[in-house]
């Protein structure tokens, strides 16, 4: 097929050319495979969004209250989308307790009166909004995103407090319940606006959350107390009604705890919107942004470009071309270290630096003048050194970084070791670790081993981590891991006098591989908040743009310093 080259008059030379054939059988096979993955996850997300189910939703309505997602829909500006984060939190977890869909809380980014907010809402249809271990971690992750990006935050509180059967995993640690209130205080000290609306129960330690916010609203029929009526009677023998002990009327008239006493959810949300409209603005972004323009090529083609078979190569530049403004890309050191693609571009108008794994095999000439083929998705010495330098350049020039993962890891073997792969990898990890500009990670395929770290995995403080439904990540691939683990198990059994047949060995291999494959699934990672959001590939550009808009709210960038670099 002829190259698909933009034919606009005066088209600049840095527009990426596309060589794909959308009519090929291979393209159509990939399209079907990705469409099936996306459809499956969309159906699962719709089921998760039901929270505790239809009966629990009906019970919430009988109390005269809206559900968490109904409240959010009313809160955000009409005609805008709420970008939910962490919908898969606690997926397939706590099944012995009936499960906790979306960890019993809804978090995400929404526009209120035209400005971006982090919204955190307890879902009272899930165990009365009680905090499971993953609930606390999800709220803390949302707060950390707000802290890193200086995003104003709204809390819609409707929670029975800690889920007591699991209290030892919710209560004491740095990523547990108490950290939520610590973050409230830190955010307040950083002048990040926080508004809390009590729209149901708010008890025990959870009562501190609204009191550490700028504005406190409370609806009629809600309760705010350190100890509920039953606990007060048990502890000190006094008997009071919920309203007398901690109702909205008491807190607005007697204790003076709440700022606004509202008759119902709708009035409370209207009041929040009115308050938001009057919040001032701080310093503007220091990151460069021009008027956005769409890519030259259709985003829908991403379905057919990404290979459904992990063993087959594809050109990552075809992916990049469908994400960037005008599909324009100033590639950095294009002929050197080709298995990692680096370059300057714009997404949603924002200037960005792209660091991506090239998945097609590349011809390279080594330092001795010998030609060699470098495997796609593998980080070699030259590509690690190139990426490290590029990341440092982006920090020097205040250019946010976007990492696109489909990485098998670093190259191994004698030639790699002799070339200094460990030293080069350390340079890249150092540059990523000390990077001070916003970093956004998108895992589109494999993200294995130390390659995950070097490409700004979760441990390296990306502002946001997105994943395609096709994402897979672990220390190594399922087949490789299963082969290693099964070999160890066989040797252990043989030392104990047990001899396995070939059939037994195959059965053991299949069992281990199935377990490992399940753990590589992006939903497994999203359940544990290693991923903020699993996105449809066609949403990639919008997701990155929204993340950059969030990052631009924080104009403070520390001094860049990488420390010791091994040379």
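^ Assign residues to that structure.
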């Amino acid at each position: 097929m002829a190259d698909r080259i933009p034919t606009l008059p005066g088209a600049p030379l840095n527009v990426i050319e596309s060589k794909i054939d959308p009519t090929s059988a291979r393209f159509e096979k990939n399209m079907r495979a990705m469409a099936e993955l996306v459809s499956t996850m969309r159906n699962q997300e719709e089921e998760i969004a039901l929270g505790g189910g239809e009966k629990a939703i009906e019970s919430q309505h009988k109390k005269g209250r809206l559900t968490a997602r109904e409240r959010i829909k009313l809160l955000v500006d009409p005609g805008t989308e709420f970008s939910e984060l962490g919908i898969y939190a606690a997926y397939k977890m706590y099944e012995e307790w009936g499960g906790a869909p979306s960890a019993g809380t809804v978090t995400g980014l929404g526009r209120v009166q035209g400005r971006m907010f982090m919204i955190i809402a307890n879902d009272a249809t899930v165990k009365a909004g009680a905090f499971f271990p993953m609930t606390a971690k999800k709220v803390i992750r949302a707060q950390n995103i707000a802290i890193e990006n200086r995003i104003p935050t709204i809390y819609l509180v409707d929670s029975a407090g800690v889920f007591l059967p699991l209290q030892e995993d919710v209560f004491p640690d740095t990523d547990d319940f108490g950290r939520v209130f610590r973050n409230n205080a830190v955010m307040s000290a950083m002048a990040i606006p926080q508004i809390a609306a009590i729209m149901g129960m708010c008890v025990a330690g959870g009562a501190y959350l609204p009191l550490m916010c700028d504005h406190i609203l409370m609806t009629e029929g809600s309760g705010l107390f350190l100890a509920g009526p039953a606990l007060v009677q048990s502890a000190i023998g006094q008997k009071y009604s919920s309203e007398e002990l901690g109702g909205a009327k008491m807190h607005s008239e007697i204790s003076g705890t709440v700022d606004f006493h509202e008759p119902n959810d709708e009035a409370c949300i209207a009041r929040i919107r009115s308050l938001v409209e009057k919040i001032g603005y701080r310093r503007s972004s220091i990151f460069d942004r021009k008027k956005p323009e769409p890519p030259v090529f259709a985003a829908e083609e991403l379905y057919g470009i990404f290979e459904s078979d992990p063993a087959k190569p594809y050109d990552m530049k075809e992916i990049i071309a469908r994400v960037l403004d005008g599909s324009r890309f100033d590639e950095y050191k294009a002929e050197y270290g080709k298995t990692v693609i680096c370059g300057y571009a714009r997404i949603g108008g924002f200037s960005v630096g792209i660091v991506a794994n090239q998945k097609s095999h590349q011809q390279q000439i080594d330092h001795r003048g010998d030609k060699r083929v470098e495997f796609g998705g593998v980080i070699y010495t030259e590509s690690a050194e190139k990426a490290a330098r590029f990341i440092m350049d982006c920090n020097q020039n205040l250019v946010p970084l976007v990492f696109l993962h489909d990485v098998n890891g670093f190259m191994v073997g004698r030639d790699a070791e002799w070339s200094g792969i460990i030293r080069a990898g350390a340079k890249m990890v150092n540059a990523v670790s000390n990077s001070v500009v916003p970093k956004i990670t998108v895992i589109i395929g494999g993200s294995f081993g130390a390659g995950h770290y070097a490409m700004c995995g979760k441990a390296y403080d990306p502002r946001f981590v997105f994943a395609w439904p096709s994402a897979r990540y672990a220390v190594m691939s399922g087949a490789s891991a299963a082969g290693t683990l099964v070999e160890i198990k066989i040797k252990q059994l043989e030392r104990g006098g047990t001899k396995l047949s070939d059939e037994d060995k195959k059965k053991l291999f299949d069992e281990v591989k199935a377990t490992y494959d399940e753990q590589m699934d992006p939903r497994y990672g999203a359940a544990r908040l290693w991923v903020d959001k699993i996105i449809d590939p066609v949403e990639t550009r919008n997701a990155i743009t929204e993340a950059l808009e969030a990052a631009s709210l924080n104009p403070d960038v520390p001094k860049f310093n990488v420390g010791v670099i091994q040379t």
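The longest helix spans residues 25-48.
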